[in-house]
Specification:
The chain is mainly α. The protein has helices spanning 3-10, 13-16, 25-33, 40-49, 59-62, 71-75, 90-99, 105-113, 123-126, 134-137. The protein is built from ten helices and no strands.
């Protein structure tokens, strides 16, 4: 069952933040970080199924003016926004795609960027100054 289905089945969104006696931000974040949740999906599942009443279901709303940065900070995970990530250079990403026989943009998502943090999911944005199209990027340019 998906995290969304669990959330919708188990509780209403309004119930998530019904308890107003939450831990202070730093204590709550410390508590959550010890859970070793890695991403939004894991947080949503935990929040819907196991979250104690002293931890808010929507910490971004509760702590928005009290230390909230983002979900990665809240979880203490290595996930970073796309703008913060370090990817392979355009040429190295292109070489990786060709070496791994990536056939299309969809294949790039399914076998490439979804499983490798060093590859962007949207290379046409990340490498916008060098981008010449999928055919060029995947070594399929017409000769």
């Amino acid at each position: 069952m998906s995290a969304r289905a669990v959330i919708l089945k188990s509780k209403n969104w309004e119930e998530f933040n019904q308890n107003k006696s939450f831990l202070a931000f730093k204590k709550a974040r410390e508590y959550v970080r010890k859970l070793n949740l890695k991403n939004q999906k894991e947080w949503q599942y935990y929040s819907a199924t196991e979250r104690p009443s002293f931890i808010p279901g929507s910490p971004c709303q509760i702590y928005q003016n009290d230390g909230w940065v983002n979900l990665s900070d809240w979880l203490g995970s290595e996930n970073k926004s796309t703008s913060e990530k370090k990817f392979l250079s355009y040429e190295d990403a292109k070489k990786w795609a060709i070496k791994n026989n990536i056939k299309s943009g969809n294949d790039w998502l399914v076998r490439g960027s979804r499983f490798h943090n060093f590859l962007p999911s949207t290379p046409y944005r990340t490498y916008k100054d060098q981008w010449k199209g999928w055919a060029d990027f995947l070594g399929k340019e017409k000769k």
